[in-house]
Q: What sequence folds into this?
């Protein structure tokens, strides 16, 4: 005859029953595993829940309720109520599994329904409940290895122990109490460490997207999803980047200033044997120790002459996209051409201006060509890839998704702009056809942001996500790779250190922020993004050399003063330009032809339109913008999350410059003098104050000279290698030095 407390007998019987059905249950679970989806299907969660349900000693108690629930009417009511609660708990559990919202919190909520069923003592039940939850956490959480093995060891010891008779002697009772106490302590430790899964990280980077190209900075651009997320997040109104693609991407992915990686000048030409140095770490390499799944979608532009310089060799699990700086949106042909810089330097060592083209589209290292990709619009391809990643993601693991859009970069060196007709037709009111196409490209990109947010929400991932939206540099209304993107009212364009080249649209959105729904005017640099997000997940970037970025997480979430009071905008020895900002004062040096003016987009108003016609068009645009926002995917998701974006707040991000003086274009001659501007009071760089504050000019210049002593030579000096030409590689761009 079995002796000991009642609960020991039930546990023993349940374990024995589980052992008898183990192989049957294992086969059942194995059949539910969906290998094609590369993740455990929701039915796995159901199998785990049902397994726990069937082996639970409390289930045995529930089945025996009939033996004592008829003793009196109160027991009948009590038993009925308990069964109802259990049914509701099971229904909720099945619903969350079926809808992809299944998780440890839901599992524990479901098991909480068993609490009133037990006739055991509170202490005895607590031990049992702890064991169940330990099992749940062990199965579902990516716990640090030694903790996970500790949990498994205790569970095995516990099950083995209760297979024998209950403790009788005093020593056995003491040992059992000690064991139970240690179990609960371990449980509390895991709960405190793992009560919340690490946040998902979504980093969205647009290409050549100017200050005036986002909906909330324009009277004719429509970006309802971006506007909505910005209105519910934190607008980074003094966010600064680098003036070109390669430098800004290197800074973003490493937290290191390009002057210390050799990528401070120009961009990587696909024919140059150079790349982001291999001795620096990137986002995925920082995140992998925390069990992140890491993916890049879209543009790379950090070198590919050898395999080791490509995304999947730098820590990313997958990459779908291209390696060069730009390509056709439909054919996915990337072209490179030699071009002279402002200093007259010719990159082509053979002294010719031939343009070379080749296919540049891959999934990881595999080339995708022909009918598999030709004719498919890049933005749509990238959007679908992001949805596919989210759909197949194991939600028990945190996700890092770097969505590096091709939009709104021009398609090739001939400055072609491309978008599907259905988007172009939406902007027929913009009579400047290039600007109309640019608006269509931006709308398609914005739509992809909305679908991404919607899919994260449907998978139950959005409420634990940090989303950052940035542009790599300012817009390019003229010159090489012009895309009709504007930085109005800021001065200058892409490649320049005027505000228009380096001050770009940016925001951060997350339910994890303590404070949101405001415009931040704190100084933030592109290198700050990595340490900021790392702090948000409880990690850090300490121990790495030359880290220029600082964490701004507390600055943003608590609305505090920025930790940064100075930014070295760049020191470029090839283009001979440099700039520094300290607090409100900016010193700039070095002249580059073309792009030193203020550019205003030509949009919907024709020259012969009177003021009334122009005003009517502005009202129509505004009404359409409001409708777009309220119908956007992002707005609908936020409504379901009981969040209300404050669109009026976006008005605080508007830059007001005051009247432009007659000498604005002549009071600063960068080819012969240093210029000083108060960026806080004069964001449009109208008034050169160098003569008013000569000591400040000298102080900032000396600072630049001191920093210049630490810089490394620019890699852009490397000549192109003719062996890279796609004509030698089946008209495809490849890692030619590894071929």
A:
């Amino acid at each position: 005859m079995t002796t000991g407390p009642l609960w020991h007998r039930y546990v023993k019987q349940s374990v024995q029953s589980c052992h008898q059905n183990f192989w049957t249950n294992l086969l059942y679970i194995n059949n539910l595993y969906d290998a094609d989806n590369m993740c455990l299907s929701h039915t796995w969660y159901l199998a785990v829940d049902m397994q726990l349900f069937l082996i639970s000693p409390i289930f045995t108690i529930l089945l025996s309720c009939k033996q004592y629930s008829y003793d009196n009417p109160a027991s009948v009511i009590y038993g009925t109520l308990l069964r109802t609660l259990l049914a509701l708990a099971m229904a909720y559990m099945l619903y969350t599994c079926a809808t992809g919202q299944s998780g440890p919190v839901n599992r524990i909520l479901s098991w909480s329904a068993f609490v009133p069923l037990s006739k055991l003592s509170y202490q005895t039940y607590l031990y049992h409940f702890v064991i169940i939850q330990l099992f749940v956490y062990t199965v579902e959480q990516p716990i640090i290895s030694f903790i996970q093995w500790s949990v498994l060891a205790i569970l095995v010891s516990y099950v083995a122990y209760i297979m024998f008779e209950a403790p009788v002697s005093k020593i056995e009772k003491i040992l059992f109490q000690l064991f139970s106490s240690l179990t609960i302590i371990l449980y509390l430790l895991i709960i405190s460490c793992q009560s919340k899964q690490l946040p998902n990280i979504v980093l969205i980077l647009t290409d050549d997207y100017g200050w005036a190209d986002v909906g909330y900075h324009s009277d004719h651009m429509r970006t309802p999803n971006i506007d909505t997320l910005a209105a519910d997040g934190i607008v980074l109104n003094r966010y600064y980047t680098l003036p070109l693609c390669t430098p800004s991407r290197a800074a973003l992915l490493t937290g290191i200033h390009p002057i210390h990686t050799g990528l401070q000048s120009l961009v990587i030409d696909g024919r140059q044997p150079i790349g982001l140095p291999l001795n620096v770490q990137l986002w995925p390499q920082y995140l992998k120790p925390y069990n992140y799944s890491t993916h890049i979608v879209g543009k790379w532009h950090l070198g590919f002459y050898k395999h080791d310089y490509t995304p999947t060799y730098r820590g990313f699990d997958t990459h779908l996209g291209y390696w060069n700086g730009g390509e056709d949106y439909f054919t996915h042909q990337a072209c490179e051409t030699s071009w002279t810089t402002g200093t007259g330097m010719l990159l082509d060592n053979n002294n010719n201006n031939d343009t070379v083209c080749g296919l540049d589209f891959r999934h990881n290292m595999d080339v995708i060509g022909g009918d598999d990709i030709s004719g498919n619009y890049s933005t749509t391809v990238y959007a679908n890839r992001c949805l596919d990643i989210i759909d197949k993601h194991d939600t028990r693991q945190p996700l890092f998704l770097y969505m590096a859009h091709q939009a709104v970069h021009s398609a090739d060196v001939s400055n072609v702009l491309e978008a599907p007709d259905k988007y172009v037709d939406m902007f027929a009111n913009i009579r400047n056809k290039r600007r109309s196409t640019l608006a269509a490209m931006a709308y398609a990109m914005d739509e992809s942001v909305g679908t991404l947010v919607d899919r994260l929400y449907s998978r139950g991932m959005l409420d634990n996500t940090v989303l950052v939206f940035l542009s790599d540099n300012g817009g390019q209304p003229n010159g090489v790779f012009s895309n009709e993107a504007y930085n109005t009212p800021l001065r200058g364009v892409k490649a320049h250190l005027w505000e228009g080249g380096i001050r770009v649209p940016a925001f951060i959105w997350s339910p994890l922020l303590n404070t949101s729904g405001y415009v931040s005017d704190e100084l933030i640099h592109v290198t700050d993004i990595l340490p900021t997000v790392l702090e948000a997940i409880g990690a850090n970037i300490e121990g790495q050399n030359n880290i220029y970025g600082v964490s701004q997480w507390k600055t943003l979430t608590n609305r505090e003063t920025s930790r940064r009071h100075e930014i070295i905008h760049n020191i470029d020895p090839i283009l001979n330009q440099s700039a520094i900002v300290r607090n409100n004062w900016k010193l700039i040096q070095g002249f580059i032809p073309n792009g030193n003016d203020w550019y205003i987009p030509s949009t919907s108003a024709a020259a012969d339109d009177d003021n009334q016609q122009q005003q009517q068009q502005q009202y129509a645009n505004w009404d359409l913008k409001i409708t777009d926002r309220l119908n956007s995917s992002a707005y609908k998701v936020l409504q379901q999350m009981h969040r209300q974006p404050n669109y009026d707040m976006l008005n605080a991000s508007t830059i007001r410059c005051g009247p432009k003086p007659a000498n604005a274009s002549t009071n600063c001659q960068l080819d012969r003098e240093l210029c000083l501007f108060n960026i806080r009071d004069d964001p449009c760089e109208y008034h050169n104050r160098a003569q008013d504050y000569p000591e400040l000019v000298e102080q900032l210049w000396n600072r630049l000279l001191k920093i210049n002593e630490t810089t490394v030579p620019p890699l852009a000096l490397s000549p192109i290698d003719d062996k890279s030409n796609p004509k030698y590689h089946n008209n495809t761009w490849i890692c030619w030095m590894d071929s």
In short: The chain has two domains: 6-194, 200-736. The mean pLDDT is 79. Residues 200-736 form a domain with the Alkaline Phosphatase, subunit A fold (CATH 3.40.720.10). The first strand starts at residue 200 and ends at 206.
